[in-house]
Design a protein that fits this description.
The complex is a heterotetramer. Chain A is an alpha+beta fold. Chain A has helices spanning about 5-10, 50-60, 65-70, 110-115, 140-145, 190-205, 215-220, 235-245, 255-260, and strands spanning about 35-40, 80-85, 95-100, 120, 130, 150, 185, 225-230, 265, 280, 285. Chain A is built from 9 helices and 11 strands. By secondary structure, chain C is an alpha/beta fold. Classes of the chains: A alpha+beta, B mainly alpha, C alpha/beta, D alpha+beta.
């Protein structure tokens, strides 16, 4: 404890996040010029699972095996959901719908407030962080996550048979940890990559450019369905997409959705619950003329 | 129909009767202790296994991150409330019939809180780091997250537990003095001497005692209400369908009082039988307790219906779906059983003849408790199995034997604590029974005088 | 605690100090003091081995025949992750799940690490000297026709060495076998367009009509096609958002992404193609029109089960939106009249005038000896016949697993045992290696040198595969090295200049540096630059597509009535991750849910809910799938995306060997395929087998990603949202 | 003048009351009913206070102080630690949020109140205490004890008063 620290932080009594996606009013004074965000084009997504496997490779995700999978204990941070049309059509003649679901890095995250030990917090670059060392495994965050994208280490996977049998452990990415039993984990927007990119930019004395950092899923995606970048950077693809789709970060209902007849397809899942998710989806398009 | 406590009972006789319960355990006592130890052993075994292997062995999974542990935790917390009800609220209301039974009810409060505390621990994925949740200045320069209802919970339970222990202890000091004065020399006498703190029943001691007891009782009432409201906040503060209900706090509090009263009836009957307390735990007291329980049952039923109604008439389709799922889905038998046990079974308490029927009330109280346990389970699990997100719903989930084992073990732990308590602390408050008898005889005398005087 | 599982100290051992701080920050016990191994710091780090900094090396993916160019992230001498090479014209920096799992093939715990010699029932580890000497002994005195090489598709310098070795042995027996290959389409393309693999321009088409070509999943070069597909779907390209129509009996990943998925009675794809030609009316050459005249919409509708309305609608669409692209894929070709189906579909494509617009010819590549020898399933039949006659004395196998992929009816295993000496060049002890007398352990694709020319490439290129790290095991060798060693046994003088395959490869590149774009460059500089890119452009001349629409030889059989005893058609499906089963031991792929059924770690039987209702089958029932040739059991999955007359099972499961993740996982569909072949090419007609389904009475809970709602969103708004194209303006999208 | 302690036991409150009233009204040298008389009883009996005259109870002040300091401590501890630990930023929430802090303040208010009240009780009631030499176990059973401290000279007077009211037993002990 220090008094100066206390007074300084007390003066930041009001939240610094979330802020409008148009940038903070006093941009210069704002501690972070970064708000990581994503957009996923469901029309381009083919459901091929490349992103999910890339995530396993990048983030040291354990392969739990059939039995644990059957108990619902899979650890895929990025899961591909496959939905069918629900209008009782006899054959699914418009194909299936795929939805890559990952942590939505909410700006007003339901998980953050409930953690008893503060193991999940908001970072200055707008991520929903998870401090593995701090986690005591109460699983309240997961209980309160409407998307159920938090994954708990039900077992000690590093010592579990056939998860990383030698020499498979050599594949593990040393840029991030291997989580032990009893901690919660989830998508980090490839924290290790964004962190490196920020450091590099800082070293070079410049701002982050669009394309400096790619998440593993984005990098793998064969159809470029995923774009990722800094929402505060008006030049970034992600910011342009959000702008074009008139999706604003700090809104539980977008203005365009109130007006009938908009011809835009950007939306966020469970926006109405007011978590301000950082992932925008673009609706899957189906040809009307067939 | 049994008789009420005789007003002319000799005070010395009270001492004798109650002190008898502290000594010379009957074989039945040892049988119960042994069974309780075995049960507790099962629980400990399961916990050790779970600690070693990870929470996965409990059968928990991604949507169902909380299981029986949290449900049973709420159950035990709830059970604790009746002790406060009897000793604090009825104390303030000068309901003297509480006096012979409040001591064990308070003990029940304390022990069920201790049991509930265990479940918090059992539930943690990293039990060995539980102290991260304790707010104390430390070398890590970190604090727990004060915004988390779980932390409020921990704080509330700590406050409640320590206050209850203090309340129980302070209230027992005069009785410890009685024990000290009557028990044969030996370690027990030394123990009671220590516990009695040199109590001699002087006017100064009594004077301060009265004020203290009253003050702590006053604190305990809002505390008890806040504890279960906070437990309700664990759910109501979250966003999950079926939990995000405004009426949850009163609903939880009513449920808590309800299950506690039912547990009091159960223990009342058991203690009455085991320690032959027929003279003190009389039928009129049972009758009053039963009536109180019935009233609370109706409050609970009302709040239960309110909960359904507010979900049903809200525009929250998901919450509605969860409710429908409760009534028709995989957990429907349990949900209906809960409603049956919680709202239908108590109607047996309306029959006057049954109000004092030991076997019937024993069965009913057990059913009520079962219903209350099911209620907690039905609050926790269906919401997880049927949350907001359709993709991750899980209707195959069933708690593993490890979970059941620990829940089972908790009853052993509770019984064990209670058995030890019965042999150390007089389970009937002797001095207050004396007070009760005294005041009643005074009242009778006054009434007689009044009658004689004639107006 | 489980012994010998993951050992943190092992993890640290290769790290050096640089990585420890990062690696130790995890949870649990982190003591490194209790080990006795030495942690060596990088006082003088090797070039490009900077502690804690990842370095990228380019190479080529060997997970499938698409040959994507990759870059491997290497840290502290370990390859950690594979990523696409952005400079590649094939995959442009992208990568599929199968390719990503290449690291798991490399670090696989079940790799063969020592040469193994089988004598009777015993197996012993031997040295390489002894292994090579044994081969030499066995080959001595044999005639060329007594020796055979069984491989998958090969290209590049391994192909050259292989050919040289066979030449030396005087053998012409190179059997290039692929259990799952577009061989029929190749043949029909050759006929229709003059080339086996025309270049496709999905991104230029306004409409794609695909008859079972799973170009997004497992067909030819899925990552490349996915990139094109992404362009094709862009609303802001001049052609507007493209429309994909997929016609097949079992929904593939591509079908799941179609605007219209049209289930068709199995085997009638050609009839539908002819029906569309007939319905087109105008612009169809007279002879074609005459041949198509019989295929009236009503008849076609009756035969194919596709409604007349749909046929006409599709015809209108094709008329209105040009250019289009019509593709024939494995679903259409896997019949005994598969070639006819493919021909009819190619005819439709030609009639629509797409040739030259959305389809053109590949360049003619200069170095023909490097171009791929593509595999097919006919090769195995031929080999099987030869083996059955007992003519073979020595058989080498490399990159294939015929004991697993051959249908039981071929009795391949029995015939294989008639070969006295079988050498398997293997990564795993798979089913074939288990039968071999000598097993030679191969380097993983990330340890080995090699070069390859992909069968399908937008621009002619020669890709280089280079080691991304040192050998994990000292006694594995690259296939090139083995061939070189074998050649040296015979012609030591000719190959003495090449110490190993690396020097051979380098020599080969440097010698031709002028042709490979390095004219005048210093040898080392050229070689280093080439290695840096891991690919070079091959000189080639523009090719052209020949042939005009012709109906010569086209005869589509009438549809067969379903047979009583075996009423259902079995369609083995090629899943994007399992393919023909060669990657079954990669746990990421086993745990990666099938995109459509979301099943993991097992195979399944897809049954249309209607059919299932008729048979009284519910999800999770263990059913027995019986064909004339055998039966297997698996769990039933009720799947709306399949024709009611068909059932489908994924290939690649049901290994009896190969490693911990593969063994015993699911059932092997190859086993029960009937010996039915395409009439023209002799390829195994993979979709031709008829089966019956019977319940076994057992029921399991299917292990799958999909929840109990079966992919329903329960009417929740805004989860996975679909919008009709007239409700949305795509032209302004970023 | 040396003092001595005397303990008289009575069967019921009425008799004890009569003795106390007589003692308070009588003028006995070296004996002040307000200071030298202690009533020991097996139960808490409000009338004892009436016939003993008013004696103040101060526990409530402890309660007040305890509760207030508990609440204040809680609020400032929580708010202070939150403000000091900036990294606990919660999206959409202030760094120091009042509603949750209120809940904890409330709990600590009660905790402080209860703890300090009990502390006050021990202090005010003089517990833990050595037992006085004149104590009869019968007090904790059913008899009322009157413990007096009196000059040796007046002991006889007192004894006679005790006996007059049918004391069951009288114990004496030489004073200090």
């Amino acid at each position: 404890m220090s008094v100066s620290n206390l007074l300084e932080n007390w003066s930041k009594f009001r939240h610094t996040h979330p802020v409008g996606d148009k940038g903070h009013p006093d941009w210069e004074a704002y501690p972070s010029e970064i708000k990581w965000a994503m957009s996923i084009d469901l029309d381009a997504c083919t459901g091929c699972n490349a992103c999910s496997v890339a995530c396993y490779a990048e983030n040291n995700l354990p392969v739990v095996g059939k039995e644990k999978y059957s108990h619902g204990q899979a650890m895929h941070w990025m899961r591909i959901e496959r939905y069918w049309d629900e209008d009782k059509r006899e054959v699914p003649n418009q194909g299936a719908q795929f939805l890559p679901m990952l942590c939505q890095q909410c700006e007003a995250a339901p998980c953050e407030t409930v953690c008893p030990v503060g193991a999940t917090n908001h970072t200055e670059d707008g991520l929903n962080s998870q401090i593995y060392n701090r986690c005591i495994g109460s699983r309240y965050c997961s209980a309160n996550c409407p998307y159920k994208v938090r994954y708990f280490n039900w077992y000690d996977y590093p010592t579990t048979e056939n998860v990383w049998p030698a020499p498979m452990e050599q594949q593990l990415n040393p840029d991030l940890t291997v989580r032990g039993k009893g901690v919660m984990e989830k998508c980090t927007f490839c924290k290790q990559r964004t962190y490196t990119a920020r450091n590099n930019a800082k070293t070079e004395g410049r701002k982050i450019h669009d394309g400096d950092v790619q998440t593993a899923c984005q990098q793998a995606c064969p159809t470029n369905a995923i774009s990722f970048g800094n929402l505060f950077d008006p030049e970034s693809r992600v910011a342009k997409q959000w702008e074009q789709q008139q999706v604003e970060l700090i809104k539980e209902e977008q203005e365009k959705d109130v007006k009938p007849g908009n011809n835009l397809r950007g939306y966020r899942i469970f926006e109405e619950l007011r978590p301000y998710p950082s992932v925008m989806y673009l609706e899957r398009v189906r040809e009307s003329d067939v | 129909m049994g008789k009420d406590i005789r007003e002319d009972i000799a005070w010395a006789h009270i001492n004798q009767d109650v002190l008898k319960s502290l000594e010379n355990p009957r074989p039945l006592f040892w049988v119960i202790v042994f069974v309780a130890l075995m049960m507790f052993g099962v629980g400990v075994g399961c916990e050790v296994y779970q600690y070693q292997m990870g929470m996965g062995v409990a059968g928990l999974n991604n949507p169902n991150v909380w299981g029986l542990y949290i449900a049973t935790f709420i159950f035990w917390i709830g059970m604790s409330h009746s002790g406060t009800l009897l000793s604090a609220i009825l104390h303030l209301m000068h309901a003297d019939w509480r006096k012979p039974i409040y001591r064990f009810a308070e003990a029940m409060t304390t022990f069920s809180l201790m049991t509930a505390g265990l479940f918090v621990m059992v539930h943690l994925g990293r039990l060995w780091q539980f102290y991260y949740a304790v707010p104390y200045p430390n070398e890590r320069w970190t604090w727990p997250n004060f915004q988390s209802p779980l932390l409020w919970d921990a704080m509330a339970i700590f406050t409640y537990l320590s206050s209850s222990v203090i309340f129980l202890y302070v209230g027992s000091i005069p009785d410890f003095a009685i024990c000290r004065d009557n028990i044969h020399p030996g370690w027990r006498k030394n123990l009671y001497t220590l516990l009695a703190l040199g109590w001699e029943g002087t006017d100064r001691q009594w004077r301060n005692f009265r004020v203290t007891y009253l003050t702590v009782a006053c604190f305990l009432i809002p505390l008890a209400v806040s504890v279960h409201s906070i437990v309700a906040s664990d759910f109501a503060m979250s966003q999950q369908p079926g939990w995000h209900v405004t009426s949850f706090p009163p609903y939880f509090v009513a449920g808590a009082l309800y299950s506690g009263c039912a547990a009091i009836i159960t223990l009342f009957i058991i203690l009455r039988y085991v320690f032959k307390f027929e003279e003190y735990m009389t039928m009129p007291i049972l009758k009053k307790t039963v009536r109180l329980t019935f009233a609370i049952a109706m409050v609970w039923t009302y709040l239960n219906l309110i909960e359904f109604a507010s979900v049903w008439y809200s525009h929250d389709e998901v919450a509605k779906a969860v409710l429908i799922d409760k009534a028709t889905g995989r957990f429907a038998p349990f949900w209906w059983a809960m409603n049956f046990c919680g709202s239908v079974v108590p109607f047996t308490m309306m029959v006057k003849r049954w109000q004092t029927s030991i076997p019937i009330m024993f069965a009913v109280s057990l059913l009520l408790n079962l219903g209350m346990w099911l209620e907690r389970w039905m609050i926790v699990t269906p919401t997880f199995s049927h949350g907001y997100y359709p993709w991750t719903m899980d209707t195959h989930y069933w708690p593993s034997l490890v979970q059941w084992g620990i829940v089972f073990g908790s009853f052993g732990w509770f019984t064990l604590l209670f058995m030890v308590f019965c042999k150390i602390v007089p389970s009937v408050s002797m001095y207050e029974v004396k007070e009760m008898v005294y005041h009643r005889s005074l009242a009778t005398k006054k009434a007689e005088l009044g009658l004689e005087g004639g107006h | 605690m489980i012994e010998n599982g993951f050992n943190r100290r092992d993890f640290l051992k290769v790290l050096g100090w640089g990585g420890t701080a990062v690696a130790l920050s995890g949870c649990g016990n982190t003591s490194i003091e209790n080990g006795k191994e030495t942690v060596v710091s990088y006082v003088e780090p090797t070039d490009y081995q900077i502690p804690s900094i990842g370095v990228y090396y380019n190479s080529t993916c060997a997970q499938c025949d698409a040959g994507c160019n990759i870059e491997g992230r290497v840290r502290e001498g370990r390859v950690l992750k594979l990523e696409g090479n952005p400079a590649s014209s094939i995959n442009r920096g992208k990568m599929c799940g199968l390719g990503q799992a290449g690291v798991q093939a490399h670090y696989n715990p079940d790799r063969v690490t020592e040469p193994l010699l089988r004598a009777g029932t015993t197996t012993e580890n031997i040295t390489w000297e002894k292994a090579l000497a044994t081969i030499n002994d066995k080959l001595n005195g044999l005639k060329g026709e007594e020796i055979a090489f069984l491989t998958g598709g090969v290209s590049g310098h391994v192909k050259v060495l292989l050919k040289n070795y066979l030449d030396v042995l005087g053998s012409k027996n190179h059997y290039a076998y692929e259990a799952v290959s577009p061989a029929v389409v190749r043949a029909s393309n050759k006929k229709a367009y003059g080339v086996e693999m025309p270049r496709l321009h999905l991104d230029k088409a306004k409409v794609i009509v695909s008859f079972g070509a799973d170009f997004l999943g497992a067909w030819v070069s899925p990552v490349h096609f996915s990139q094109q597909y992404a362009q094709f779907r862009k609303g802001n390209r001049p052609e507007g958002r493209g429309v994909l129509v997929q016609i097949e009996s079992k929904m593939t990943l591509t079908g799941a992404n179609a605007d219209r998925w049209i289930p068709i009675r199995p085997g009638t794809e050609g009839i539908l193609a002819m029906g569309i030609i007939n319905a087109l009316g105008v612009g169809v050459p007279a002879d074609v029109a005459a041949a198509a005249r019989d295929y009236t919409t009503d008849r076609v509708s009756k035969d194919t089960g596709v409604s007349a309305e749909q046929i006409l609608g599709l015809t209108e669409l094709l008329k209105a939106r040009s250019p289009s692209l019509v593709l024939a894929g494995s679903a259409a070709e896997g019949y005994s009249h598969g070639s006819q189906n493919a021909a009819a579909i190619a005819l439709l494509n030609q009639v629509l005038g797409n040739v030259g617009k959305t389809m053109d010819a590949p360049a003619n590549v200069q170095f023909a000896q490097l171009t791929p020898t593509t595999g097919n399933s006919l090769a195995l039949n031929d080999l099987n016949d030869v083996m059955a006659m007992g003519k073979l004395k020595v058989l080498f196998s490399y990159g294939v697993n015929p004991v697993y992929t051959a249908p039981d009816c071929l009795k391949l295993k029995d015939n294989l045992n008639k070969v006295p000496f079988k050498v398997a060049l293997a990564h795993y002890l798979d089913e074939t290696a288990m039968e071999a007398d000598l097993v030679l352990p191969l380097d993983s694709a990330l340890e080995d040198w090699g070069s390859s020319v992909p069968e399908y490439m937008p621009e002619p290129q020669l890709s280089i595969q280079q080691p991304l790290m040192e050998n994990l095991y000292p006694n594995t060798r690259g296939v090139g090295d083995i061939l070189l060693a074998l050649l040296k046994q015979r012609h030591a003088d000719q190959y003495k200049a090449y110490e190993d395959f690396y020097s051979y490869l380098r020599g080969a590149f440097v010698q031709n540096k002028a042709a490979l774009g390095g004219a005048g460059a210093d040898d080392d500089a050229f070689w280093n630059e080439t290695l840096g890119k891991a690919m070079v452009k091959l000189p080639g001349t523009a090719g052209s597509l020949s042939g005009k629409p012709t109906v010569a030889g086209l005869s589509l059989p009438a549809t067969k009535a379903s047979e009583g005893a075996y009423p259902l058609r079995l369609i083995p499906s090629v899943s994007p991750s399992q393919r023909d089963g060669r990657h079954a031991n990669l746990s990421w792929l086993q745990e990666s849910p099938d995109p459509l059924t979301t099943v993991v770690w097992d195979s399944w039987v897809e049954i249309h809910p209607k059919t299932a209702a008729k048979l009284g089958i519910v999800e999770g029932d263990i059913v027995e799938v019986t064909s004339l040739s055998g039966s297997i059991k698996s769990q039933a999955y009720l799947f709306p995306g399949i024709h009611p007359d068909a059932v489908s099972m994924p290939l690649g499961y049901g290994h009896e060997a190969m490693g911990r993740y593969a063994k015993g996982t699911g059932a092997n569909v190859f086993k029960i395929l009937d010996p039915l072949f395409d009439k023209e090419t002799g390829e195994l007609a993979i979709n031709e087998t008829n089966v019956r389904i019977s319940k076994t009475g057992k029921r399991v809970v299917i292990v799958k990603e999909e929840g109990p709602n079966g992919g329903s969103q329960l009417g929740r708004p805004k989860i996975a949202v679909k919008v009709s194209s007239d409700k949305v303006d795509l032209s302004k999208e970023v | 003048m040396s003092k001595r302690h005397m303990l008289a036991l009575y069967n019921n409150f009425d008799e004890a009351e009569a003795v106390v009233r007589e003692l308070r009204n009588s003028e006995i040298k070296g004996f002040n009913a307000a200071d030298d008389l202690v009533v020991k009883s097996p139960i808490e009996h409000p009338e004892v206070e009436e016939f003993l005259g008013h004696k103040p109870v101060n526990v409530q002040w402890f309660t007040l102080i305890g509760a207030l300091s508990g609440g204040l401590l809680a609020f400032f501890l929580i708010a202070g630690s939150q403000a000091n630990f900036y990294s606990q930023m919660k999206g959409g929430k202030p760094i120091v949020p009042f509603p949750p802090d209120f809940v904890l303040t409330y709990e600590m208010f009660i905790l402080g109140g209860v703890y300090i009240t009990v502390l006050g009780f021990l202090i005010c009631a003089g517990l833990p205490a050595r037992r006085s030499p004149l104590y009869s176990a019968k007090v904790s059973t059913d008899q009322i004890g009157l413990l007096v401290r009196v000059d040796d000279n007046s002991a006889a007077t007192l004894r006679s008063i005790f006996t007059k009211h049918q004391a069951l037993e009288i114990q004496e002990e030489a004073g200090k």
